Amino acid sequence: LAKVLLKEAGYPDGFSLVLDTETDFKEPAEIIAAMLGEVGIDCTVRLWEWGVLKPLLLEGERALLLNTWGSSILDPVGYVDAKFLTDGRGNYSKYSNPEVDRLIAEGSTSVDLSKRKEIYKEMQRIINDEYFYIGWSIDDLTGCSVDLINWEPIPDSRINLHDASFK
């Protein structure tokens, strides 16, 4: 299917691109590049230290990025305002849509959960229709000593040892 879609888009022989990422994501970037290669897209992985890459992203000088962005508050606003708001701190692609900005503002201030769900659903529909973005998730594997007490893994992947201690 991918080869058919590439041909329909005017790329019957594929094309070349560069995937920029941090050194920590070398392995998943290489897997993605290999998968793209299977459909005729020549993908070169370029590794960076974050301190070098981030200014280039802010200047809009990278075409394709693999990185992560978590939400420590477990609420959509902690993610969408950074990535999709016109002046969001993590909006490296410079995506801008006044309607999405309005929906983010409305969703972040509404206290009606069913209304918020509909707001974010509409925002996501708009983004999916006009923007190239693929979210990805990496499951955490956490191990600890049987002697550790007063600690449990939490959904935001942070490790809070404030109340933890050993027997």
Automatic annotation (TrEMBL):
One of its GO terms (biological process) is peptide transport. GO terms for molecular function: peptide transmembrane transporter activity. Residues 2-88 form the Solute-binding protein family domain. PANTHER family: OLIGOPEPTIDE-BINDING PROTEIN APPA, PERIPLASMIC BINDING COMPONENT OF ABC TRANSPORTER. Belongs to the bacterial solute-binding protein 5 family. The keyword Signal applies. This is Solute-binding protein family 5 domain-containing protein. Keywords: Signal, Transport.
